[in-house]
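hiii, so i know i said id send this last week but things got crazy w the move. better late than never?? heres the sequnce for the chain we talked about at the cafe, plus the structure i predicted for it. fair warning i was half asleep when i ran it
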Amino acid sequence: MNAPLPKVLIADDDASIRLVLSHAFTRAGFQVRATGAAGTLLKWATEGEGDVVVTDVMMPDENVFDVLPRIRAARPNLPIVVMSAQNTVLTAVAAAERGAFEYVPKPFDLDEIVAVTRRALEPARKAGGRRTAPASPKLNRPTEPLLGRSPAMQGLYRGLARLVASDAPVLITGEPGSGRTLIARALHDLGPHAEKPFLIASTAFASVGEVMERLTREPAGGAVLLEGLDEATPEVQARLGPWIDELDALPPRLRPRVLATAGVSAEGRSGEGAIRRDLYDRIAVGRLRAPPLRERPDDIPELLRATLSSLGEAAPGVDPAAEARIKAHDWPGNVRQLQSLVRRLALMTAGPVITLEAVEAELERAPPPTEEAGGIDAALADAVTIAFAQGPLADVHERLVEALERPMIRAALAAGGGAQLRAAEILGLNRNTLRKKITDLGLR
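okay and structure toks below
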């Protein structure tokens, strides 16, 4: 006797989408029942109908994200696939928060959504009809931490949504300027421990030792980001492995989540610019890749407008020809380079709009950044970006100065053999000024 065909419940307010999906699932061997109302979907599901749900988010009677908890309460093992034209990281995380098996952005490929739906049924079949809902992260931030609706960013959003509720270490790879630090910040801010500290340790500077000491002495949960892990010296990498093991031994409420960023070629290498295998295995439990801007040119207009908007109401507009030229550029420095150029253009523009001629002149004037050109300039640019994101804005200058002075003074003291007079000479400071800074910063 043949097994009954699986039944899919389809919910979308667009009749044409319901029709196309109904035909595709019927051809794929499903029974289909479709509706344009969230209330009807809730009724069918809670009455026991359907083996899997494929639903849009925005419905005329109710937002499906408000309905899904009620469906899960009645049928915790029913797999749900969410599709949405609101293709943002918050949508992906909200879908995961409410127990969805997968989030599929619109417009979608029919073969893809059918394949995803088949995969959603597999856990239930293997468990004899039982399917455990994934852990639910808490959506803590109303603002959009990452921008872009391109396929490359959708893949990142889905990966981030799967990892955001976990405490597992995550390695984020990508080119300089591609937003690796912002991705790490989103993992923390959208997760269940957003109210706890988020500490950043640049492995290229002395700050990593300070952060290690602080978290060992006063653990408080939250997250620690090891920036530029592939740039750390062999000595620092050798220390990090045992230190991470020490953190793992802490009680869960005090254990910080370890995140790290690295270049695109860090994996599988040896020698300079590589991550030790034992350290890589500890940190790359979860992996995310920040896509370079050249892989998502359709996101450039949104990033351009967001950068101008951050400058306030006095910022100029952009001539369509200028926007087209900006979009056509290959941006070897990625989002950081784009934002820097747009801010510079806005500062120099006297008229109401940024012109094509101004864009051409700036692109010709500025040499393209390279991987090697990152270094301290890239670290400083990231520090400024992070400081503005953390707020309040009135404290940005003070926090940046402290973040830069601390490792600088430590390095000068080390170079001077611990003698404050010699360190003051190296830094070009009065000895009394240096002594006060050492006291204020709590340095030994």
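btw The mean pLDDT is 82. thought thatd interest u
miss u guys!!
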